[in-house]
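During the second year of the project, the team shifted from modelling isolated chains to modelling whole assemblies. The rationale, set out in the original proposal, was that interfaces cannot be judged from single-chain predictions alone. As a representative example for this report, we include one of the complexes processed in the last quarter. Its constituent sequences, exactly as entered into the pipeline, are reproduced here:
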Amino acid sequence: MTIYNSLSGKLEEFKPLKDKKVTIYVCGITPYDTTHLGHAFTYISFDVLIRYLRFLGFNVSYAQNVTDVNDRDHDILDRAKEQHVSWKKLADFWTRKFLNDMHALNWIHPHHFAKASRHTHHMVDLIRELLDKKLAYQKNGSVYLDTAKFPDYGKLSKLKTDEMFKVSRDFEEDLQCPEKRHPLDVTLWRASTPDQPKHIPSFNSPFGKGRPGWHIECSAMSMEYLGDQIDIHGGGIDLKFPHHEAEIAQSEGATGKIPFVRYWLHTGTVHYLGKKMSKSEGNLELVSDILKKYSPNAIRWLLLSHHFSKSWEYEEKDLIQAQKNVNLVENAIKYANELTNNDHAINTFTQILDQNLDTPKALDFLLKMTKRSAKGLENLYTSLGFSLKKSKL
Ligand SMILES: [Zn+2]
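Output from the structure prediction step:
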């Protein structure tokens, strides 16, 4: 199988570090809001990749995080304050909602679904390692990654310094912090302040009370569950910088093992009404709302009709078409009336998905099968995660 690796910028033959065992980490949600199509696109794309790797005979170990605590104020903490609930209650509520939405789409639950708040000791260990190696520095109880010590900082995103500043500003990274030696240095641990409001979480550490930075969380949790070096690390394209760039520096800096990740895979963004689907733009299409009108399989079809690496614009007409296609395939399966394999179809289907997980082409192939022989169609359809259990609709 070939797969597009964002690190090399090339299609590469997929070869895991350990023979038939594949480790995959996918950056998860910050739970303060509900699941929209953009989230579903990322997680269903990786769901299908995992299903396909299993189909090829790999033994896949899959971890995904929940950023229920981090160094930033403007997501969970501000929302919790507005709603007069604790950050924990808010995060648990939206995590449950996310799981309900994703399970409705027949999503594979990760082997390790790790909440950041329960792993702060791993983050502290990693930060200590970076301090010991003089790759990080302390200032007033906070700890920062010294990016000047990483000559290849930028090797994933390939951004020039001025572009790094621009993207960091868009990400609302704290560039003004006077404690940092360089504005782009990464916050690893943010110290609690004596007058800190009660709604802000605080954890013990050798550096003093505080909370972990967002970027160190994924380094620590991926290494905890999958090892110092992993095969595939995925996430939305907007996480490439600074999040994934920082993860590489932190993990490779602490362990000295290069590469931290063999294949970096990034999913495109979903746009709606001409802009990236996001809470701030107010252009969300929520999975839970769409499920009131369309079947889970129709949503899965819509998502897989776009290649994982490409950004796309959502239009309801495409969802209507996806529902029609799903009905067509499911009718053909009903009348095929036998669960048989079809070696020729399997070979063609495998050849398609072997080319950088070309799901749009794989769906076209399933549609073609409905017009010819539907023999073996059921196996191929369900291998992409479509469920033939009776829909509630
Ligand atoms: Zn992450």
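The two ends are 37 Å apart (CA to CA). The chain has a mean pLDDT of 93.
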